[in-house]
Structures are given as structure tokens and as C-alpha cells.
Amino acid sequence: MLRKRHILFEVGVCGVKMKQLPFLGIVCTVMLFIVYRTTTYQYRQTEMDEQLNPFYLSKDVGAAFNSLSNLPRGIIQARSDLELKPLWPSSSSRSKVNVSSSHNLLAMPVGISQKSNVDAIAQKFLTENFTIILFHYDAKVDGWWDLDWTKKAIHVVARNQTKWWFAKRFLNPAVVSIYDYIFLWDEDLGVENFHPGRYLKIVKSEGLEISQPALDPNSTGIHHRITIRARANKLHRRVWEVRGSTKCSEDSEGPPCTGFVEGMAPVFSRSAWQCAWHLIQNDLVHGWGMDMKLGYCAQGDRTKKVGVVDSEYIVHQGIQTLGGLSAKKASNPEEATKNKQTVDVRTEIRRQSTSELRIFKKRWEQAVKEDKNWVDPFRKKRRSSRRLIQRLPV
């Protein structure tokens, strides 16, 4: 009797288990459906985040997404450009449509006293269909209209502002995303031996993301030997220096020995500028210290992706006009006395630049300390190189 009850109990339990199997199958199906829907939603939101990325940092993407949630995705355009558009279509405007697949940008801070030199630079770039944007730091825009090409350029006016101030506010990556290369140049560069078309061919063939034309040895204000032209080379990526305070050898893996360009004439690829724009500090307008960190924006190994082109070189004339002349360089004694009684502009600018350099260095160090997930890609490379050297047989 007990054995019969035991058998009946086991059969009952098995029956209950058999009845539970379809139920578990339904539960599993529902769970899989929920996971699928969640994954699909996350994927779509990621797509939206990528569209918004040019305008927003990661911490702002969620808020930006919510603010656009009432718009259909297909209508959202998160990018723009600096191309001029006609007020209405005409036969002449239709015939002048640029069908070129390549777009490049020249951006310069300019003052009216450098008008002739800026014109010489622009003429070189216009032959290669560059878009040109001029940042007028002296607010004297009307003095440029006699040059025909300026009617097709973009003009931005803000008195006594620097190149980096303008770049941070008007060259947002979302606005310049159609341009393959961005030339962010000073106005006092001699371009007699420079051709932008040939320059870009070298940059592309060598895979440079950040570059600059070499400086003629007779240039004014050369601060780092790596920027000086090597006559026998097409380009160079490093320099060897045993004199002075900076020692550059084959083992050197960072600026200013390799992976370095200076701030007077940098050229950025689209991807490199996306990074470099975020490196520009909104309140540090002179840009001091940035050149030592630009290699982090090279989209890879800075010893390979950053270079100085020797065959297309420029002359840095070292003419400082932003903010006015110093008392030492005033054109006449009366003007010198007047400047001396007020303020020595160049001295004050240098003092401010030095102060900003200290602030930038401190911010970098603080950012590295606070970002626990950040790993210095070049420090890792240095350690690997040292371990390899130690393993080599003597």
C-alpha cells in the first residue's frame, strides 16, 4: 500500500513537472523578447548619440537626446559647414557649384596691417579651391573688400581675440566636418616656397594626421629645432639634438623631439581636429602648452602620424600685431612714450601666456589624476620599449 502511494506521488510530481515545461518555455520566450527589445532600443539610442556627438560631450548626450526626442530621427542634422549659399538659385550660382569631392579649410586671424601678406597666402590656397575664413581681431573688415576673393570668404569679427579663441568658438567639429584638412595658420607666414596641393599629397601619402610645413632656417622666432627645414628631406618626424637643455636621441619618443608641431602653422585632418578642438581650453586663449599635447590627437602613434614637411616650406616673419605694438617697437618716440605711460602690450601678453601655460599644465595633471580609466598610450609604449631593450642579449 505504501509502495503504491509512493509510486502515485512520483507520478504526480512528474506530471506537475511536465505541466511546468510549457510555462517555462513561455517565460523564456518573453524574457528573450524583452532582451531583444532592450538591445534594439540601446542600439538606436547609440546611433542617436553618435549623431549628436559633434555637439555634445558624453555627459551631455542623455540630456541632448531627451531634448530632441520629439523630432523624427530622419529630420535631425547635427552637422553644418562654412560654405556660402545664395539667397535664391540663379544660372550663375548653379554653374559655380563645386562638384569636387575634396573640401579643405584655411582659417587665419588677420589684421589690416598684414593685408598684403594675407592676400599672398590666400592666392595660394584659392587655386586649390579652399574655403577661407578670416578672424578679424582689429575689427577693420571694410578695408578688405577691394580684394575680390574676400567677398567669397567668411569673416568673423571680435576685437583683440586670439586664433585659439576664434577656433574654439567658430570651428566646432560639427561645423567643419565636411573639410578633410584644416589649416589653422598665423597671418605672418611667407608662402613663396609653399604649394597647398603638393603639401596635401605628401601628407596623405605619408599618413600624417597632424603636420606643419617646415620653417626656413632664416625665419624669425624659431623655438624648436624639429620645425626647421631639412633641405635633403621630403619630410621628417623626429630630430636629433645633443646641445642645449633639450636632448633628442633615437630613444626620444615625445615632444619636442618627435610627435610635435608648433602653433603657428598646424594642419589637422578631420579626425585629429575633432580631438584637438576638445583640447583647446575655452578660457586659455593663447594656447600655450597645447603643442606638447597635440600628439595625443594623432589617431595613433604620434611618432608616425605627426610630421614636418620639408619640401613645402614657409618663412615665419614674426610680426606681432595682435593687441598693438609694444613701447620698444613703436614707430616714433611720441607713440613710444604714450605706450610706455599706459602699458607695454607685448610684455603683458607674454606674462598672460606664461600664466596660462602653468594653468594648462596643472589642468592636464589634474585630469590625469582624476580619470581613473585613462591610460597614457605613450607611457605604455615607452615601458614596452624598455622591457624589449632589457631582454636583448648583450
Automatic annotation (TrEMBL):
Taxonomy, superkingdom: Eukaryota
Official protein name in the record: Uncharacterized protein
